Amino acid sequence: MSANTMPASTRRWIIGLGAAVGVLALVLVVLLLQGSGGDADAEDASTAVEEPAVPSSPPATDPSSPATSAPPVETSPAPEPEEPTDLAAPPEGALDLASFALPSRNIACTLDESAVTCQIADAEFTPPPGEDCEFRGQVVTLADDGVALPCPDGPAAAAGEEIPVLEYGQSTSVGRWACTSSESGVECSSLADGTRFTLARAALTTDGPGAIG
After folding, report:
1. From the first residue on, what is the mean pLDDT of each consecutive set of 10 residues in the chain (213 residues)?
2. Count of structural domains, the chain
3. C-beta of residue 117 within 8 angstroms of C-beta of residue 108
4. Residue 209's closest CA among 194, 197, 188, 191?
5. Could you tell me if 27 and 109 lie in one domain?
6. In a domain, 192, yes or no
7. 3-state secondary structure 175-205
8. CB 141 within 8 A of CB 117
């Protein structure tokens, strides 16, 4: 049967059926598209929820802040050694000669902060017992540990003209030591404890806490 011979009612029915099928197909396409988009949105939402949060970094600490900076270390200067405060007064009118000779120039002495040292060129006395050496007694020292007679390397000589003279009756004082010149020899003493010696051509005597023997 050809389309020209098909009854008009049949043709209308076929056309209506085709239109209905087309509308149904269009609705299905729209639904499929919406479903696909929803799944994508759901997946994006799921991803956003499941992604772990990145912890924020703690605030940086300022090293210059008083709460974190180390306190300064205070250092005290090393104490200086103290000189004795109970020294006896030096002889009245004492000079400050650090080296001198008696007018005869047979005896000469030097004074510094640590000791007094005297030497005698011509000695007629016998030194007290002690270390055996050839020129013992020609050098006498007075220090904090007392009077001593060290062994010199050679014989003592008379004082040279360049050494100032401490006249008889004069005294000199340096630090804790004092010496007085007299016709009887030279007397040197410690102003700290009173230890002293007297050196002359004819004799050597010592006295006080640091005396010999």
Report:
1. 54 60 62 56 45 51 51 58 72 96 98 97 93 92 97 93 97 97 97 97 97 90
2. 2
3. no
4. 194
5. no
6. yes
7. CCEEEEEECCEEEEEECCCCCEEEECCCCEE
8. yes
